[in-house]
Amino acid sequence: MNVTASAISLNVADVAASAGFARRHFGFVPDMEVEGVMSSLAREDVGFNLIFLRTGLETFKPGRIAGHAGEGLLVVFVVDGIDAEYERLRAEGVPVVTPIETEPWGERYFQVEDPNGVIFQLVQWVTEPGA
């Protein structure tokens, strides 16, 4: 297998709201868009496209999973300067759903929520995983 690209695709009620959130707060740029239907966003340093699809599209397969994609899903970015990112997003008025904390295994993280309920988690390892 030769993988040439990767993406995560999320079903949301308001494509423009989630796409705007990712552009404004995480620096994604439009790669391809169909107004009100889908938005594919990219960042060179992320390694995948972030795609938002309008919930209920008839073309979504398999139909049994065509509902809201946010249940049990985290979009995670490993970053440097986690505390600065936390303060930046709070200052921008982004809803924080899990304040910054550090797990016993060295993962320092926090979670924010976009207008459609998609949870983004930012992480910085303050000790090596498994240490």
Q: How many strand elements? A: 8
Q: What value does the Rg take, in angstroms?
A: 16 Å
Portion in strands: 35-45%
H-E string: EHEEEEHEEE
Uncertain ranges: none
Number of helices: 2
Task: Report on the biggest sheet.
Answer: 4 strands, mixed
In terms of structural class, how would the helical and strand content be classed? alpha/beta
Helicity, as a percent range: 10-25%
How much is the average pLDDT?
91
Which sequence of strands runs across the widest sheet?
1-4-3-2
Based on Cα principal axes, name the global outline: globular
Q: How many angstroms does the end-to-end distance come to?
A: 33 Å
Question: What can you see in these coordinates?
Answer:
This protein has about 130 residues and is α/β, with parallel strands linked by helices. About 15% of the residues lie in helices and about 35% in strands. The N and C termini lie far apart (about 35 Å). The mean pLDDT is about 90.
Question: Would you kindly provide a brief summary of this structure?
Answer:
By secondary structure, this protein is an alpha/beta fold. The protein is built from 2 helices and 8 strands.
Features:
Glyas_Fos-R_dOase_dom, alpha/beta, Glyoxalase, Glyas_Bleomycin-R_OHBP_Dase, four-stranded mixed beta sheet, VOC_core, 131 residues
Blueprint (SSEs and pairs):
Elements: E1 7-12, H1 15-26, E2 29-34, E3 38-42, E4 49-54, E5 74-78, H2 82-91, E6 96-102, E7 107-113, E8 119-125
